[in-house]
UniProtKB/TrEMBL annotation:
Coiled coil: none annotated. Belongs to the sigma-70 factor family. ECF subfamily. Residues 134-186 form the RNA polymerase sigma factor 70 region 4 type domain. Residues 38-103 form the RNA polymerase sigma-70 region domain. This is Putative RNA polymerase sigma factor FecI. It holds the Pfam family Sigma70_r2. One of its GO terms (molecular function) is DNA binding. InterPro entries: RNA_pol_sigma-70-like, RNA_pol_sigma-70_dom, RNA_pol_sigma70_r2, RNA_pol_sigma70_r4_t2, RNA_pol_sigma_r2, RNA_pol_sigma_r3/r4-like, WH-like_DNA-bd_sf. Keywords: Sigma factor, Transcription, Transcription regulation. The lineage of its organism: Bacteria, Pseudomonadati, Pseudomonadota, Gammaproteobacteria, Pseudomonadales. GO terms for biological process: DNA-templated transcription initiation.
């Protein structure tokens, strides 16, 4: 359970978020009131819901705040019949993003650890690399499983089409077809 001081800290943090979100432009007071009411009525429930799934009070509190920030950025007052279902959907999406980011970061750090020479990378460069990996992950999200797998084997693992075909038990022509489909998909998304 949160202590009184922790609740006060959350309220102060929420007020700062509100001020930051609303300071950029004039915002409908009904949105401000709706989000404030939503926060007051459901924040502690959302923190508990997230804590059960994440197993960490701090991460749960961060994601709960991010959830309400996401609601604020929609710039329209939500008309909700089931506010908890809505909040859990937004929070679940943010949780998935967090897990993806962590998995990409972990894979990057493992790859970095395997490099023959020690590599010293600044926090800014590391952040840029992770953001780029997240963008690539979003680009590849629309690919089918086999196409994505072939693309990653060719681009990340550096395998030839022959090696990929041998590992997957498919012809080189099939591998090429999937590779072209993946590259075309990425190019079309980048051009948009």
């Amino acid at each position: 359970m949160q202590t009184c001081s922790a609740l006060e800290e959350n309220e102060i943090h929420y007020q700062k978020i509100l001020l930051r979100a609303f300071s950029m432009s004039s915002v409908d007071l009904s949105l401000q009131h709706a989000v404030h009411t939503l926060y007051e009525d459901h924040h502690s429930w959302l923190c508990g819901w997230l804590r059960k799934r994440l197993g960490c009070v701090d991460n749960a509190a961060d994601l709960a705040q991010d959830t309400f920030l996401r609601v604020l950025t929609q710039r329209k007052a939500p008309q909700l019949r089931e506010p908890r279902a809505y909040l859990s959907t937004v929070a679940r999406s943010l949780m998935i993003d967090m897990f993806r980011r962590r998995a990409l970061e972990q894979a990057y750090l493992e790859t970095l650890a395997l490099s023959p020479e020690p590599v010293e990378i600044s926090p800014e460069t590391r952040s840029l690399i992770i953001e780029t990996l997240m963008e690539i992950d979003r680009l590849l999200d629309g690919l089918g499983g086999r196409t994505r797998e072939i693309f990653l084997m060719a681009q990340l693992d550096g395998l030839s089409y022959v090696e990929i075909g041998r590992r997957l038990g498919v012809s080189v022509t099939t591998v090429k077809k999937h590779a072209v489909r993946a590259l075309t998909h990425c190019l079309l998304l980048v051009e948009d």
